[in-house]
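Figure 6 in text form: structure in, sequence out.
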């Protein structure tokens, strides 16, 4: 494992957002949802493609807090311009479990 300096970690803006909407993304190569995530007034609402269809339905996602990287460059994913990277972990079967705060925290709060 490569070590990084604290300054390297501080460059990554991991922020809390709330999923406002989740809809199927049929044009994606792997099953995915298009998420609209609200990161509060400072950052606003960002779109993301998330390959989380194995464990979540759109209805289960709306209103949930998630952790996302908000300072990557935008990335074109098919017809969608992804504006953040929602984080998660692969389980033993390769399904993605979202990284989510256990309790309510203000939107836009940075992970430190």
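Output sequence:
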């Amino acid at each position: 494992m490569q070590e990084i300096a604290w300054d390297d970690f501080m460059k990554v803006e991991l922020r809390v957002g709330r999923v406002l909407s989740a809809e199927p993304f049929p044009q994606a190569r792997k099953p995915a949802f298009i998420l609209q995530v609200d990161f509060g007034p400072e950052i606003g609402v960002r779109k993301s493609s998330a390959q989380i269809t194995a464990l979540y339905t759109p209805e289960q996602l709306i209103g949930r807090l998630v952790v996302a990287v908000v300072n990557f460059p935008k990335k074109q994913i098919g017809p969608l311009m992804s504006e953040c990277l929602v984080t998660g972990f692969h389980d033993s079967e390769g399904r993605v479990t979202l990284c989510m705060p256990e309790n309510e925290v203000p939107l836009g709060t940075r992970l430190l």
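Caption detail: The longest strand covers residues 14-24.
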